Amino acid sequence: MIKGRHKDDVLFVPFHTTIDIKEGLVYINQVMKGINLEYTETIDLVFNMDLSNNKLTGGIPPEITELTLLVGLNLSHNHLNGSIPDSIGKMKALNSIDFSDNQFTGMIPPSLAALNFLSYINFSYNNLSGRIPSGNQLQTLNDPSIYAGNTDLCGAPLSNNCSDHESPPATKEKIYKDADEPKNLWFYVDIMCGFITGFWGIIGVLVFKKQWRQKLFMTAEVTIDKVYVAVTVRASKIKRSIEAK
To answer: What family is reported (predicted)?
Structure first.
């Protein structure tokens, strides 16, 4: 919820605009180009919202993104924080966005690329991070100053290369991999020790126990003889069967 300076349940914002909350209804009076505009239940028809240069705190209410006819949204020079709602991409009519000089964090929503009428944006001097989205109108907004003051942002039009920002996770992964290498080494050592112990345990018994060795060879010889006899008998039967046909 956005909170700001208020008096008698009236929230004052610049440019001769007031938001008055009475009996659960929202009344907005805005003077634009000398014309007094009043919105009550038709607040969804608002086409310009300028709440800049106040002392607003908190996050952006997700309900704002339901104002699909909004052309201009200015929340600059406040103390707003939290992330920018990804649902801002639903505000298809937006032409101007100014969120500068706040304390917003997280990534700039990729859904902004879906806005085809953007001609002005300003996200400078926040705590935003990650890759700057691209596509559609965002490609034409190539002034680096609109992203200034966000040291963790990367990608065009900034000079910060996103690969430089993405390298620490790779380094971290390498550290984990290096840490696992000693464990893998001991795993293979254990396997080799087990194989050597088992192999030489059997061979050693056969080498040093003559009686066992003779018994093993006799068993092997008897087995081979049985296999040979069985194969010979089977082959003879097959041969006779073929000749009979």
So the answer is: Belongs to the RLP family.
Q: How many CB atoms lie within 10 A of CB 121?
A: 22
Number of structural domains the chain divides into? 2
Q: Higher-confidence residue: 20 or 154? A: 154
CB 149 within 8 A of CB 171: no
pTM to 2 decimal places: 0.52
Beta-bridge partners for 127 = 105
Residue 78 has pLDDT above 60, yes or no: yes
Please compute, for residue 20, the number of CA atoms within 13 A of its CA located in the half-sphere on the CB side.
12
Is there a single domain that holds both residue 203 and residue 237? Answer: yes
Cα distance between residue 99 and residue 190, in whole Å = 60
Where among 140, 160, 180 does a domain terminate? Answer: 160
Longest dimension (CA), the chain: 117
